[in-house]
User: What shape does this take?
Amino acid sequence: MKRYDAIVVGAGHNGLTAAAYLARAGLSVMVLERRDRIGGAAVSEERHAGFLYSSCSYVCSLLRAEIMRDLELSKHGLRIIPYENSATIARNGDSIAFFHDPAKTRRSIARHSRRDADAYAEFNRDIYRQCRMIRPLLLETPPDPTSVRLKDLKGLRKLQKAFAQLGEDGLAQAMQFWTMSCGDFLDRYFESDLLKGSLAGNSIIGTALGPYSPGSAYVLLHHVMGDLDGHVGAWGFAVGGMGAISQALAAAAQEHGAEIRTAAEVEQLIVRNGRVEGVALVGGEEVLGTRVVSNLDVKRTYLKLAPRKELPTDFLEAVESFKIRGSSGKLNIALDRLPEFPALRDEPLLKRGGILISESMEYLERGYDDWKNGQWSREPFLDITVPTHYDPTMAPPGKHYMSVFVQYVPPTLADGPWTPEKRDAFGKTVLDTIELYSPGFRDLILDCWVRTPWDLENEVGLTEGNIFHGELTLDQLLFNRPIPGYAQYRGPLGGLYMCGSSTHPGGGVMGAPGANAARELLHDAGVRRAA
Amino acid sequence: MSDSPIIGGGAMLQPTPFHRRTAALNLVNAWERWQGHTTVTTFLSPEDEYFATRTAASLYDVSPMLKYRIAGPDAEAMLDRLMTRDVTKLKPGRALYGPWCDGRGRVIEEGTLFRESAASFRLNAAEPQLFWLEDCAYGFDVTVEEVTDAIAGLALQGPLAKRVLEDIGLGEAARLPFFGLGRFGFEGGEIEISRTGFTGDLGFELWIAPERAETLWDRLMAVADRHYLRPMGSQALNTLRIEAGHILINVEYVGANHALRESQMRTPDDLGLGWAVDPKKPGYFNGRRAIEAERAAGGPRRRLVGLDIEGRKPAHAAYLYAGRREVGQVTSACWSPVLKRNIALATVEAGYAEPGRKLKADVYYVKEVTQGRVEAAATVVEPRFYQPAHRRG
Ligand SMILES: Cc1cc2nc3c(=O)[nH]c(=O)nc-3n(C[C@H](O)[C@H](O)[C@H](O)COP(=O)(O)OP(=O)(O)OC[C@H]3O[C@@H](n4cnc5c(N)ncnc54)[C@H](O)[C@@H]3O)c2cc1C
Assistant: This one.
C-alpha cells in the first residue's frame, strides 16, 4: 500500500496552501476533503442558475502576496481586484465614505465632525504603525518565549526588534490594541457615532466579543493588517469568487504532483506508539502517510480525529477550553438588478465597494446583547458587497450577486436549536433591515440563500460556525495560538501538524497558517529548501 | 458622457474657487491632487512660470491651504502655548512664520500665523490640525474654527508684484511692510492681503471670499501682459521654494502627528528652525522642555543644510558620504535657473553639517533609457540660496 510523505486532512485554502508547498518541495502529498468540493470557507458555489456565490468568505485582503508569488497563483488563474472605497449608510439617509485618497475620506468625515476628520489621520497612523509591526510576523512561526533554542531566540530577537521600532508611543498603543475594547479605543479619537460605528465593524466581524468587550480592538487590527497593491487595509474581490483562490491553490498543488480527493471524510487518525501513521476514512478505507497535516480546527483535530487516550490530559483540557464561538451568518442573494441606496445617491461609485450598516457603537452593542441572550441581533450589523460590479461573470448580464455578512448570530438559540423556520425568520430580519436602507430591495430578489452558524458548522465544518477557527484574543494569539506550548504547528503526537486557522496568525483567507505549517514540516523532514 | 449610474458619478476631487479660470488656461491639462482639490501642475511651461516669478510676477492658487481661525480673549495665550515663537510680540496687522511641536519637541508642522486683530488670529497649515488645535485650546477661552473653504487664496509673487497691485487699485496694499497684513476695499467688497509668500521673493498673498475669487483673478489677468504676470503651477513653485530654502512637510520632514516612524520626526533645531524657538518667552509651550534638553545635551543629532553640488545633475534623493561614511541624504534638489547652480536641501548628521564641509553625493540620473551614476562633490552651505534684497524692500 502506498505511503504518502504527507496527508493533508481538509482542502480548505490553508490545507491546499500547505499541500502546494509540500508538493513543490518534492514530497508525495494526498489531500483528503470531506465535502464534494474543495475550498472550505473559501469557496464559490452555483446555487441559483447562472449565479456564482462566494458562499462564505467574500472579500480578500489578507492573502499573502508571498504565497501568490511562490505558488504562481496568477498563472493558475487567480486575479484579485481591490475596490477603492467603502461606505457606511445611516437610516437617516446620511453616509460616511472611505477612499484610498485620504483627502476625500477627510471630506466625507468632516461632514459629520471636522475634528474627527483630522483625528482620522492620526488614527490611521496608529493603525499603520501596528500593521508594520505585525505584518512581518505573519509568515513566521511564533517563537517560544520559554525556549533557548537558536531558532526561537532568533524569532524572539525579531519580535523584540519589531517592538523597538514601534517606539514608546507605538508600544503603548500595541498594548492598547491587544487588550482594550474597540469602543474605548475609538473613544480616544472620535466623537461621531456613525464614524465609530463604521470603524467598529471591523472589530466585531467573526468574533463573539462586543464592541465594548476588552480585546476587541485587536480584531479591528486583524481586519486591516492586510494590503493590496500597496494599500494597507484595502480589500478586494477575487475574480470568480473566493473559490477561485482555492482553485488556484489546488491547481498549484496538483501541478507539483499532489493528489486531491473529495468526498473523503477522515474519521480518525491512525496512531502507533505516539506517532501518526495515516488516517482512516469514513467507510473504513485507510490512507497511510509518514506525516499528517490537519486543516481542521484544534478542537476537531484533537477531540474528534485523534485518539484521546494517546494525548496528555492537560493538553486535552486546554483544547477543550479553547474559545471558539459562533457569531456570524451570511446571506447570498441573486438580484434582478442593482438596488438603490438613497444614502449613496450623490456618490453612486460607492455602491461598488463595501456597504456597511452599522449606525453606532450603541447599535452594535445592542446587537451583541441579543447574541448573549441567545437570539440573532434584531437590528444586525451588515457588511454588504456586490462583487458583480467588478466581476460580471458571476451573474447573468445585467443581474447582480449580493453578499451580506451578518453579525451577531448565535450558534444555538435560547429556545433551542436552529430549525428551518427559525432560519427563515433570521433571513427575514436581515432582508427587512436592508429594506430600511434600500426601499424596494425585496422586489429585486431572485434567490436568497440564508446561512446560520449551524449551517456553517454542518456544511463547512466550522466549529460553532466560528469563521476564524477560534477567537482572536491575546490569550489565543502568537505563541499562545492555539494552545500555549504548541504554537509551532505541532502537537503532542509525533508526525501530526496543524495548518488551519486556529494556528498562528489566525483566521481569514490568508494562507499564512498553511505556508508556515508546511515550512515546519519540511524542516522536520529534513528538506532544506523548497524547490 | 456615459449614462451609467456608476461611471463618473459623484463628488470626487473638489475644484478650488479659481478652478474655472485655471482650467481654461491649463493648456497641457496637467493636474495634481492637493488636499482633495485639483490643482495645476503647470499651465504650459514651468520655465516660463518660474522666470515670471523671478523677473516680474506670478499667480499661484493656494486655496487648498488649511486655514483655522482662533479667536477669543485667550487666543494670544493659547497660540503662545502652541507655537515655539513668542506670539505675544505679534502685533495686530502682522504675521509670523514658525513651527509648533508635540510634547517631545518634535515638529508637528510649521506655518504662518496672521494676527487679524487683538483677539483674532488665522493659522495656515498644510495638513489637518483641527484635532490638535482643539486639544491645545482646552482650558482657554477661545474658539477654533476651520475656515479653509471660506477663504480663497492667491499668491502674487515676484519683484513687480507691487506694481501689479497698484495697477488694479490696491496701491495701499502694495505699501504693506514685510510680513504685514491688512484689509482693503476691492471691487465693492473687501480683500485681505498679507506680505507673505513661499517663493523667497517679494510678494503678497491675497485672501478673498470664494464667490469673489473669479473677480480678483479677472482683474489681475486683465493687466497680466503689462507686467509679465503669469499663472503658475506647482512645478515651478517647487524650484522657487528650494532656492528660497523653504522646507516642505512630507518632503523635508514628516509631521509628528502623522509620522509612522519616530526616525522621520524632526525637532526645530534639526530643521534649522532654531531661530524660530524663543526660549526666553515666559511660560510653557509644547515641546519646550524637550527642546531645552536637546540643546543642553549638545544640540540636534542631525541638521537640515543646503548643498552646493558640482555638475548639473539634480541630486534627487542622493545619499551623502564623508569619506566612506554615509552621513545623510538629500530631501529636495533642483537646478537653480536664477543662480545657475546645482542646489539641494539635505539632512546631515550634525557633525558634518557646518558650512564649508565637503561631502560626496551619490547622484543617479536618467541617461536616456538607463540610469547613470556620478559621485559629485557637495559643499554644505546655508540653505537660503536665493535671498534678493528687494524681497523685504
Ligand atoms: C460566512 C463567512 C464569511 C467570511 N468572510 C471572510 C472574508 O470576507 N474574508 C476573509 O479573509 N475571511 C473570511 N472568512 C474567514 C475565512 O473564510 C476562514 O477563516 C478561512 O477560509 C478558513 O480557512 P481554513 O483553510 O483554515 O479552514 P476551512 O476553510 O474551514 O477548511 C477546513 C476544511 O476541512 C474540511 N474538513 C472538515 N472535517 C473534515 C474531515 N473530517 N475530513 C476531511 N476534511 C474535513 C472542511 O470541509 C474544509 O474544507 C469568512 C468565513 C465565513 C464562515
